Amino acid sequence: MNEKIKELLQKAAQDDQLAAKLEACKTSEEAYAVAVSVVEGVSKEEFVSAMKQLKAAIDASTTLTEEDIGKMAGGIDSSEVSVIVGATLSATSGAAAIAGAI
């Protein structure tokens, strides 16, 4: 992935206002406009491609089966697993917001 896109994702993860701006985007054009206001040197094609890849990775990583949860739990109460998984998923919300607009 392009280093500038990585930089954008890091900034979005650290800046709630930036993450909110990206989350509010309804189109790839809107998301790209926000992205280039934060980092330079990213073409729209690179941005869209990276966000599609990111979305696919997030979708794949957030689909948990009962077996996955059981393997993760390792003796932890299932309600605690839900809290842990929820916290992990919310940490990726900035990236997901960007990817969702694509």
* Overall pLDDT score: 74
Provide the succession of SSEs: HHHHHHH
Q: How much beta, percentage-wise? A: under 5%
The low-confidence parts are 80-92
Shape: elongated
- Give the fraction of residues assigned to helices: over 70%
Question: What is the domain total for the residues?
Answer: 1
**Radius of gyration of CA atoms, rounded to a whole number:** 15 Å
Query: How many separate helices?
Result: 7
Q: Ends: how far apart?
A: 16 Å
Tell how many strands the DSSP assignment holds: 0
Largest sheet: none
- Structural category: mainly alpha
Quick overview of this protein structure:
By secondary structure, the protein is mainly alpha-helical. It has one domain (3-100). It has 7 helices and no strands.
Write structural notes for this entry.
The protein is built from seven helices and no strands. It is mostly helical. The chain has one domain. Helix 1 (3-14) crosses helix 2 (16-24), helix 2 (16-24) packs antiparallel against helix 3 (28-38) and helix 4 packs across helix 7. The longest helix has 18 residues, at 44-61. The two termini are 16 Å apart. Residues 80-92 have low confidence and may be disordered.
